[in-house]
Amino acid sequence: MNPILEIQQLTHTYSAGTPFQRTAVEGVDLSVMPGECVGIIGHTGSGKSTLIQHFNGLLKPTSGHVLVDGRDIWAKGSDIRAVRFRVGLVFQYPEYQLFEETVAQDIAFGPKNMGLAADEVARRVRDASAVVGLDESLLSQSPFALSGGQKRRAAIAGVMAMEPDVLVLDEPSAGLDPRGRQEMMAMLGRYRQQRGATVILVSHSMEEIAANVDRVIVMNQSKVFMDGAPREVFSHVAELEAVGLDVPQSARIAALLRDRGLAVGEDVYTVAALARRLLALKGGGGVC
Amino acid sequence: MLKDITLGQFFPGDTFLHRLDPRIKLVCVVLYIVALFNANSPLTYGIMFLALAVAVILSGVPLRSLTRGLKAVYIIVLFTAVMNLFFTPGTAVGATWLGRHITAEGIRAAVAMVLRIVMLITGTFLLTYTTSPISLTDALESLLRPLKKLRFPVHELAMMMSIALRFIPTLIEETDKIISAQKARGADFESGSLLRRARALVPILVPLFISAFRRADELATAMECRCYHGGQGRTALHVLRCRAVDWAVLFLCALLPAAVITLKTLGL
Lengths: 288, 268
What we know:
The structure holds 2 protein chains of 2 kinds. Chain A is α/β, with parallel strands linked by helices. Chain A is built from 11 helices and 10 strands. In chain A, helix 6 links the parallel strand 7 (166-170) and strand 8 (198-202). Chain B has 2 domains: 2-131 and 240-265, no CATH class; 154-225, no CATH class. Chain B is built from 11 helices and 2 strands. In chain B, a hairpin with a 2-residue loop joins strand 1 and strand 2. Chain B starts with 15 loop residues before the first helix and ends with a helix.
């Protein structure tokens, strides 16, 4: 299988040639396979947001290449808008970009820009709002009358309605309560399942990343610091803490128990897995 | 990117001009402009150019930034030059174009006007390049203080100015973000008829206005939470103080219009 998204030696410098010059992303190489669920974590200012804005051609690399389906999106004759329909990007706090008179019209903005027929647009609006769990009765309301959580769902539905094969989200659960976070992850899972789509998720929450993705990319100071399966990445507790990142609490507890000689494997990094492991140890007449 | 526009942008630094009292700088720019508008001969323009050159060197602003700042007014400069060349009455020299001809007086006037505009803009740019918006409004508030006796709301005006200036970069950033978000949904701002392009702005303007109102609301709440109640009895964190060097600069700058006007009356 060929990667759906490939980044080669990507470097991006803001305000080049002024006193405000700043390199946000430096020499990043990445490739993402179709259907993968990738989590990107890193500090504020580590270059995550700059990196993901290259995925759909919102930012042009200062140097390096971005390939979607193996084709350079900045090559001559490449249609950048078509790339944006294929790689959907949801910004942080997407509820601040709602503008239409009704929720349905706002969700339809993307599909309409694709030039789809009216009945196809209507179908996509229905499907997308079902995926994010927006009740049909809300579709005819003004987006500004919705609650905060509903606004965010509507905004994400607006990107999902374009039915992109790669869905990139910048901190989709920022500012939501624990239940809202869970529902957010559930709805991303639904979208992924229904469309077989690739999901790339930027998050600050290690717990969230640990429980939901099958590959973690750690950004630090404009570079890729680690890239691998969660069990592999979260077993490097010391390195992650050295660059000021947390590891999931459950991974830390597992590491501490491991240090004390308990048979807790490195594949234990979620609350559920840790609980299962501890119960097994106890039932088996372990140390505790 | 919108971010890259320089709108009299402040360049942080620690040069002689950066350290100068902002009030003095403000008054000096006014004196400079008065002198510039009185200059009318090669000698007086020479003096003005010398003064400006000294200021540019003292500011440490790279020449490239200055010329970039002038880019915005190239059209105006060009337009003024052409208008003066062809529409100043006098003795005709050289080319005739659409029934008008370049006059000797026209050439003189064009050169003078171009010099004047370029030097005016460079001079005022130096002020904003070396003075942060905050100290600029502080300076304005301090200079306008006498008007308080006439019940002129000096503090309120200064506060409004600082808030407005403070929010320009924030709103530019916000606009950038909204544009990106709508582009990600396939919005197209670059093609189509004028009407279509105007309509394409709706998805930007609506969220932008809403967020501006939200920010204003939040700011008002935050100010009230900190017991802001207007300028009554309010003191400054950084009290502006004029040092001897500031007075010396002011004196030198006051010499400029004095010299230029004297030379002008002497007909030099």
